[in-house]
Amino acid sequence: MLFPSVAGIPNKPSSGLRNGLSFTQQRITLPRGQSRWDIGVTSTSPRTADRAILIPMTEVYVDHAATTPPRPEVIRAMEPYRLQVYGNPSGQHGVARRAKNALEEAREQISHLLDVAPSTVVFTSGGTESDNLAILGRALSDDGRNGVVVSAVEHEAVLEAAELCRRLGYEVEVVPVDGDGQVDPERVAAVVSQDTAVVSVMAANNETGVVQPVSEIAHAVHEVDSGVTVHCDAVQWAVSRPLPVEGVDLLTICGHKLGGPRGVGVLVVPEGVPLAPTVVGGGQELGRRSGTPDVAAAVGMAAAMTAARDDRDRFASEVGDARKRFEATVLDARPEIEITGRDVDRLVQHSHLSVPGTSNETVVINLDRAGVSASVGSSCQSGAATPSHVLTAMGWPTERSRTALRFTFGWNTTTTAADYAAKTLVGLL
Questions:
Q1: Do 304 and 322 belong to one domain?
Q2: For the chain, how many structural domains are there in total?
Q3: Phi-psi region of 331 (alpha: psi -120 to 50; beta: other; left: phi over 0)
Q4: Which of 165, 232, 254, 380 is catalytic?
Q5: Is residue 61 assigned to a domain?
Q6: Which of 216, 250, 265, 340 could staple 254 via S-S, CB 3.0–4.6 A?
Q7: pLDDT of residue 35
């Protein structure tokens, strides 16, 4: 079933579902304080004191690279810590100790999943802060190294942190990519020296889904100088494959890309890696990141990572099948459409397309009107006047970049939903 019932919300209106997708409008009244998160369905803003909601006729969400709906087990895990275990984990009394215990249990759970020591798991506010801490914290650690190396297709959180380092006087190298958006380990190693503090290469690109040879890059870097810190942004990767941790020193993971809550992330920081805190004022999170931790969010992230691990095989198979059907339908109708990274390794949940002769902004607007939520690329860049820096780095001219569309599937995407998205897209072209 495409839209299962959650938290007592009916899974179908009075007229019933048709083919798992189409349904008539209905008004659902929620109890006060109850969250609304029907899978794949987006509501209007709350109305009246009882928060009545009008559900759209048909809606298919295929923008999971931007954010993904929380898994049911995550909601269940977090609920007690929103309502009952509300203490500040830095306190000394019983309420605070209960919060502290929950926080440390979440840290322990995540460390077990990653096969690292609990003391290396640092909770942050999300992927952006984790990336910032990795780049800026390593650069500012005052160990005499003043070099930063990043790939040209990194997330803005990495690129802008590197640019800030440049303005502070650090030497920054941006490594180019090939036409598929992949980084050559030898090109990275060629710009590394004994002055390099940190090298940052993402596990897989958030726009195209193209996978990077992270372990090979880490090995090549450490052959030049074992003292160089290698950072990997694994925000997109973590949902569908085991994490590429071999040779990596700093690792970024984000809760809401896994079916977890927003506002929480992790940076894995092994003992001995020089890292200055970039948020100061209390010394929380093992002295790496100050601020009162969000215990419920940490619990939710641990639950999401556990669920993603347990669901990985099914996810890879079923979501992979959904994407395969989606792309086959689109290409059968419009053979001139180009699939980005089709001939290289890419994540099963990503389908990045170039549709010649179209405006991607117009197509996305029309898809939305037809009930399909997709994007033109990174949610951090949508609406920007400039073309995607990722596609520019891959050699795409501006005109082609403005024909790019991103469809990304998630843990609750069905083949029925993917088929609907594909047929809707074809019908609009």
A1: no
A2: 3
A3: alpha
A4: 380
A5: no
A6: 265
A7: 36
Pairing of strands 196-200, 147-151: parallel
What is the per-residue pLDDT for 384? 55
| 5 belongs to a structural domain | yes
The residue assigned the tokens 């979440």 is: 106
DSSP string, 274-298: ----SS-SS-TTTTTS-S---HHHH
For residues 297 and 261, is the Cβ–Cβ distance under 8 A? yes
Does a structural domain hold residue 62?
Answer: no
State which amino acid sits at residue 182.
Answer: Q
Angle at 258 between CA 252 and CA 262, to 5 degrees: 80
Give the CATH number for residue 343: 3.90.1150.10
Q: How many C-beta neighbours within 10 Å does residue 171 have?
A: 16
Residues in Cβ contact with 410 at an 8 Å cutoff, skipping those fewer than 6 apart: 61, 64, 68, 69, 239, 259, 319, 349
The pLDDT score that the predictor gives to residue 2 is: 31
Domain that holds residue 358: 312-428
Q: Which residues of the chain fall below pLDDT 70?
A: 1-57, 378-385
Considering the domain boundaries, does residue 78 fall inside one?
yes
Of 309, 328, 348, which marks where a domain is finished? 309
CA neighbor of 233 nearest in space, from 153, 353, 141, 164: 153
The answer to whether 380 is a known catalytic residue is: yes
Domain check: are 154 and 296 in the same one?
A: yes
The number of angstroms, rounded, from the C-alpha of 84 to the middle of its chain's C-alpha atoms is 29
Q: What is the pLDDT of residue 28?
A: 37
Other Cβ atoms less than 10 A from the Cβ of 170: the count is 20
3-state secondary structure 386-418: CCCHHHHHCCCCHHHHCCEEEEECCCCCCHHHH
The alpha carbon torsion through 189, 195, 197, 198 (nearest 10 deg) reads -20
Query: Which residues make beta-bridge pairs with 200?
Result: 150, 231
pLDDT of the residue at 186: 98
Give whole-number Cα distances, 173 to 168, 190, 206, 293, 358, in Å. Answer: 14, 11, 21, 34, 35
Residues 227 and 112 occupy one common structural domain: yes
Instruction: Give the per-residue SS3 of 236-274.
Output: CHHHCCCCCCCCCCEEEEEHHHCCCCCCCEEEECCCCCC
Cβ-based neighbours of 415, under 8 Å, separated by 6 or more:
318, 321, 322, 325
The answer to whether the CB of 10 falls within 8 A of the CB of 17 is: no
Q: From residue 194, give the alpha-carbon distance in Å to each of 35, 148, 171, 188, 334.
A: 52, 11, 12, 14, 51
Query: How far apart, in whole angstroms, are the C-alpha atoms of residue 63 and residue 417?
Result: 12
